[in-house]
Predict the structure.
Amino acid sequence: MGLLTDLGPWAWFVLGGVLLLAEIAAPGAFLLWLGIAALVTGVLAYVIDLTWQMEVLIFAALAVAAVLVGRRISPAPGKASDKPFLNRRAEGFIGRVFVLDEPILAGVGQVRIDDSVWRIEGPDTSAGQAVKVVAVDGATLRVERA
C-alpha cells in the first residue's frame, strides 16, 4: 500500500488510465467500468481527504456499481439488431428482383444495383430480363430467372 499512500489520488488516476488502455488493447467493455470507477475514486480522493482504506472501499463499491450499470446499458449478446444487414449488404438482396443491363454468358454476368455493379452467377439470360437473387456467395450473387 506504499505506492497508494505515496502517490495519493494520482495512484487512482494512473490505475484508471491503465485500465482504460487495457480496455482498448483487449476490448470487452469490462475494464472500461473499472477504469471509470478508479478515475471517480481519484477525483473523490483529490477533493476529500480520505484514508487509503476508505479509498479502496469506495473503489470497490464504485466498481461493482459501474459494472452493474454497464451491464444494464450494454446490449445483450445475441440480441436482434435494428440493422440486420449492416456489414452484410449482399444478404439484403436475397429475394429481390433486378433487370439485367448486360446478358449472363457462360453462367457469369453483372448487374447494377443502385450505385454498385455486382458479379452474378446463374443460367444464361439475355439483357433486359429480370432475375431474382436466391443466394449470396461472398461478393457474388446467385440468381435465377424471375
About this structure: The chain has a mean pLDDT of 86. The two ends are 74 Å apart (CA to CA).
